[in-house]
Amino acid sequence: MTIYDSVLLSKDTLDRLYDDHLDTVQALQQTLREDILPGLVDELQLDPECEERAKEWIDDTPSIFRILKRHKFVTAFSLEALRTTLSWRVRKLPALTFSPPCLFLQCLPMTARDPFGRPIVLMKLFALLESSDDVRLSLLQNMELLRLHLRHVNAVLEDKDRIARPVLQYVALLDVKGMSFKNVQHMDLLSWFIYELLPHYPGMLAAVFVLNYTWTYSGMWNVVKRALPASALSRVFFPSHAELIGYFTSAALPIDLGGQLAPVSTLEDPLRAQISISGTSAQTAGRPVQPTCSLISAPARTPVFLSSTSPLNPFYGYPVSYQAASPTLRHGRRRKRDLLRTLARLWWARWRAHTTAALCFCMTILALALTWIYRTRRARWPWRWKPLSASSLPPPGGYVVAAMASITAVTGSRNAV
């Protein structure tokens, strides 16, 4: 079976499932909107902006369907997962009013699609794992951007054809160029992505095409595939250059990958444009999106502070605060103590394991040395370590009698001489 046939079979199956369970999805949306969301609003004291943000996600039918599919279309399990995700979104998901350029993920222009009309995303694994920052927040932000962009694509499609089935997934190009076995130390990031973040954004990739794969990466792949479920492994392909062009056509690929589009570095990223779309009154799935509320929303009632090592911090190394749309230094200037504190924090994050191991080793050597000294001295001078008892002590006045006997012996020996 060719790659095209395999992807087509998966797409037909997914489309059938969407049609069969659309009524269930709409019933879940109604339950979320009428029963669960009002309780969260009262419990967390959400303002109207946050409530509108939650409603926007509830109205995203493909997202609700993907979570329902993840839980095998069992309504009770799906409803519990949806409530958990909704609570997580209003508690922890930051808004998208600001986003720095992303080096490891880029969406190709909307004119570049796979044969089934799905958007294409390019992911550079080396840039992700070699980043000196904690990329978890950036990953979280980009997953939300992918969801919003997919919803925008469906809104445009619905304007053209009201009865068209929505686009449910992306197709990913995963570039592994530059990877080495030392990157396996970042398996904790992969585990966090799979077990903590992905449950809130399940099933967004229809297929993953691994690029620049050679036999030198087989060892890493054997490690990584143990962390992936079987359903995900069936959507991973290792195409040759001819197979890649045969599936996408050269008109849908940048020149970096042998296509006819401009280089990747010069292509517009629709994900970055999605921030301005979501922050205005643009239509998303037929309804306007209200401004979101989060750590960096504007206007803010009180200043919100960002860590000096946050990926959202344009003054990296120094703490900043958001009181308006633009960040400002928290103390009004770049203080050396803040930079030294950041460097110490980064050093400790990088060398914590090594430092802890070295300290434990030194403490063990010190304990062994003290034990050896104690045992050696006890064997050489045992009388120093013998505990005193009542029988070993001389009687009262014994020291005086012994001294007089010594003096008498010395005097007698002199007289004899």
Task: Looking at this protein, list some descriptive labels.
417 residues, alpha/beta, five-stranded mixed β-sheet
Description:
The protein has 417 residues and is α/β, with parallel strands linked by helices. Mean pLDDT is 78; it is low at 280-302. It is built from 15 helices and 10 strands. The strands form 3 sheets. It has a 5-stranded mixed beta sheet with strand order 1-2-3-4-5. A 3-stranded antiparallel beta sheet has the order 8-9-10, with no helix packed on it. The chain has helices spanning 3-20, 22-44, 48-58, 61-70, 75-92, 125-129, 136-160, 187-197, 218-224, 230-233, 241-248, 270-279, 336-380, 382-385, 398-416, and strands at 105-107, 120-124, 170-175, 205-211, 236-237, 283-284, 287-288, 304-306, 320-322, 327-329. α2 (22-44) crosses α5 (75-92). The relative contact order is 0.10.
Rg from C-alpha positions?
34 Å
User: Quick one: overall form?
Assistant: globular
Which bin fits the share of residues in helices?
A: 40-55%
Distance between the termini: 122 Å
* H/I helix tally: 15
Tell me what portion of residues adopts beta-strand conformation. Answer: 5-15%
Low-confidence stretches: 280-302
Alpha-beta content class: alpha/beta
**Major pleated sheet:** 5 strands, mixed
Mean pLDDT: 78
Instruction: Write down the secondary-structure element order.
Output: HHHHHEEHHEHEHHEHHEEEEEHHH
The strand line-up of the biggest sheet is: 1-2-3-4-5
Total strands: the figure is 10
